[in-house]
Amino acid sequence: MDQKEKQNNDKDRLICRCEEITLGEIEQAIAEGCTTLNEVKRRTRAGMGLCQSRTCSKLIARIIAEKTGKPLSEVMPVTSRPPARPVKMDVFRSGDCDEKDN
Amino acid sequence: MVRTEIAVIGAGPAGLSAAIECARAGAKVTLIDENAKPGGQLFKQIHKFFGSREHRAGIRGIRIGEQLLKEAQELNIDVWLNAEVCGIYRNSELWVVLNHTESRLVKADAIIIATGATENAVSFDGWSLPGVMGAGAAQTMINLHRVLPGDRILMIGSGNVGVIVSYQLLQAGADVAAIVEAAPRLGGYGVHTAKVRRAGVPFYTSHTVLEARGTDHVESAVIVELNDSWQPVSGTEKEFTVDTICIAAGLTPLTELAAGAGCQTCFIPTLGGHVPMHDEKMRTSIDTIFVAGDIAGVEEASTAMEEGRLAGIHAAAALGYYKPSEEQRLSAEVWQRLGVLRSGPFGQKRLDAKKDILNARRTISEKVQ
Amino acid sequence: MKKCSNCACGVKIDGTPSMEELQSSPGYPSEARIRKGPVAIIECVEAIPCNPCEPACPQGAITVGSDITALPVLDEEKCTGCGVCVAACPGLAIYVKDFTFEEERATILFPFEYLPLPVKGQIVEMTDRFGRTVCEGEVLLVNTSKRNSNTALIKAAYDKKHFEEVVSMRRLARA
Amino acid sequence: MKRIIEHPVLGRLEEAREVHIRVDGETIPAREGEMIAAALLANGKSVFRYTNKRHEARGIYCGIGRCTDCVMIVNGVPNVRTCVTPVEEGMVIETQQGIGHWGQEGEDGTD
Asked: What is the pLDDT along chain C (175 residues), one digit of tens a residue?
């Protein structure tokens, strides 16, 4: 496999497993000006899936750092908001959630 | 709304130890864990721990877990299982979802977050195929669930997790085709690497995984040599017939709850990335919130237990359960044991990194004043 | 595996210590002591915080000291080769070898945490630090004492010619 | 893929009551209380779902409920993390296609 073919293959490689976002899509977002995890996430949906970027955030951060020359510390982390776990909408009608609303 | 004095999030080695210390001090403590059983990852650790007698050296992690559970039981600690903490509000309220269905609010005077860490990923072609999994996942399958995920395994990463899980896969009856390490030198303790080496498992340093092949499951793996600038050297590819590829590429602290609560973080690569800043008392930038274990910087179960104790002692003291002199004495004992665990070439790096966190915390508290 | 396969690359590349690393560590007995009879062979060459071998030794022949990261030092005159340290080492890095067992054969006592276990009298394949079969061995003893918390101790006799290389036996096939 | 009955450190696998779950219409045995993912692995099944965009097979990845790769349709509920959800007698499990669907296949009793 020559270098060019290899690079094309790399573009198809999945980075965000949940939303099935590829290296190519993330590089494209960076080329278009995204320089943080939050920006790449909003542009591509990478990290917006069920796992909420637990698996891919560090991978994406490294790609951004590599492409932009920014230190990892500035690229990460993503903003954390509740719920920290996937929660069914039903839960909001249950127990103390009602109490909180009232 | 449920009232408690100290809420501990996560019942792994750090959280259990923290809860035990809080209860010992006389505080009312609620230990909350999302799993069906307490113990966190401790019950996967079937090897004998290092350290000295005071660190329970020579005892298998799983037995240490049993001892901690027994202590927690004897102290009548209120343990909530299948309870996911989904958020922390106003520095004192936890939103907990029970059994995925029911919401509860817990109000606590102090919170200890011991949520541990998550495994890092390595992306390569085919890495989403069934059969590619975290080393921790394989360890969970064999040691907790007693099911072999595969018969022939390729391990990516030679840190302690990679070599320990490789050894445990051998013990479970699988074969390990090779352990691949991107760095030019192996990462794990020599005694661990020697155990798998003498079982015939080869190490490939300066190599990385290029591709997992297979249709609906891993059928083989291709590795490649890396040159001095960490680039693959074409022509050096080797294919291994394996049905499982395990990734042991380090851990990242699970800081989402702490960060969501507003705890300031700092970036310490040696300890896994962003960690909540904390002081010698394991207190974060928010006075009522403490951290312990891997969330405070990825180390190992032995250090996690000691940090848990620290957080427990200081959280209890903050609520008035210890006089300052007692607090100081108890804390000094733990720091002495921690110092021992963080000695030597492996420990020194972590010790230095820990100092960076403490300094960062000091800087922000000076700014506040 | 890279560059050399047989070799003196050492523990951080091969995964197992080289003879140079072993012989220059304070837990490896001298040639003269080895020739006298059973003795502990401590293959601990890396400074990690660990010391259960020290209190385990009934003869007080192993010293780590207050800095538990120090390498264990073997007092080879005090060591009787009793083997208590073999099961005590969390790293499974200690063996007891007896050069004087028979004219042609030496013995090794080693920790073994795989199933199935061999039985007394069974002929097994003795392996070196790289997992390669070196020679046959005859199992003399299988100790599964509860005290050792499921680390079995196995004593096997093997050809003296391979005294230094042999450290374990090949895993047996599962039924 | 098989159960580890004898283990050098953990000893013999404790006896457990056998329950039965239905996976894509096929009844398979499981150990009471074990996680769905473990029961499936023990029965030789490692593909738990096919993804939405690329229709690729997925299975266990993190094993502790973080990555959500092992989700399936369980008793008519999609996106259930099988590595942290214990089996129950009579549970109905389906390989999830894409984002899945609500309600059980064959709920009318035709199977």
From this structure: 344 445 558 999 999 999 999 999 999 999 999 999 999 999 999 999 999 999 999 999 999 999 999 999 999 999 999 999 999 999 999 999 999 999 999 999 999 999 999 999 999 999 999 999 999 999 999 999 988 999 999 999 999 999 999 999 999 998 7
CATH number of D13-97: 3.10.20.440
CA separation, residue B343 to residues B152, C43, C69 (Å): 36, 20, 6
* pLDDT at residue D107, rounded to an integer: 53
Q: Cβ distance D97 to D105 under 8 Å? A: no
Q: Which residue of chain A comes nearest to B83, CA vs CA?
A: A85
Structural domains in chain B plus CATH codes:
2-118+251-368 (3.50.50.60), 132-246 (3.50.50.60)
Q: Which residues contact B14 (CB under 8 A, 6 or more apart)?
A: B40, B114, B116, B292, B293, B294, B295, B304, B305, B307, B308, B311
Mean pLDDT over B67-71 rounds to 97
Residue A97 confidence class, pLDDT cut points 50, 70, 90:
low
Tell whether domain A3-101 is in CATH 3.20.20.80: no
**Chain B residues with a Cβ under 8 Å from any Cβ in chain D:** 34-36, 41, 46, 60, 62, 118-119, 128-134, 136-138, 140-143, 145-151, 171-173, 215-217
Return the amino acid letter for B263. C
pLDDT grade for A73, boundaries at 50, 70 and 90:
confident
Place of tokens 């891993």: B218
pLDDT at B313: 98
pLDDT value, residue D1: 54
Contact B154, B244 (CB under 8 A): yes
ipTM of the complex: 0.94
Q: At a CB cut-off of 8 Å and minimum separation 6, what does C103 contact?
A: none
Any chains having at least 3 CB pairs less than 8 A from chain D are: A, B, C
The two three-digit tokens of residue B192, written as one number? 């661990």
Neighbours of A1 (CB within 10 A): 9
On the 0-12 / 13-18 / 19+ scale of CB atoms within 10 A, C80 is: middle
Domain ranges of chain D: 13-97
From CA C114, how far away is CA C167, in angstroms rounded? 15
Inter-CA distances, B334 with B307, B323, C55, C69, C148, Å: 8, 17, 22, 18, 28
Mean pLDDT, chain A, whole residue set: 86
Inter-chain CB proximity D46 and B217 less than 8 Å:
yes
Q: How is residue B312 written in tokens?
A: 């427990």
Helix and strand tally (H, E) in chain C? 5, 9
Q: How far is D26 from chain B (nearest CA, A)?
A: 20
Q: Which of C113, C115, C152 sits opposite D6 (nearest CB)?
A: C115
Question: Taking residues B331-350, what's their average pLDDT?
Answer: 91
d(CA C88, CA C54): 9
Alpha carbon C163 to its chain centroid, in Å, reads: 11
* Strands of the sheet with D96-97, listed across from one edge: D57-58, D49-50, D96-97
The domain ranges of chain C are 11-169
> Cβ separation of A51 and D53 shorter than 8 Å?
no
- Residue for token digits 């180390």? B299
Give the pLDDT confidence score for residue C2 in this predicted structure: 41
Establish, for the pair of chains C and D, how many residue pairs have beta carbons separated by less than 8 Å.
11
Residue that wins the pLDDT comparison between C154 and A91: C154
Residues of chain C contacting B198 with CB distance shorter than 8 Å: 16, 127-131, 167-168
CB atoms inside a 10 Å sphere around CB A21 = 25
Query: Which stretch, B90-99, B343-352, D101-110, has highest mean pLDDT?
Result: B90-99
Determine whether the interchain pair C170/B200 forms a contact, defined as Cβ–Cβ distance below 8 Å: yes
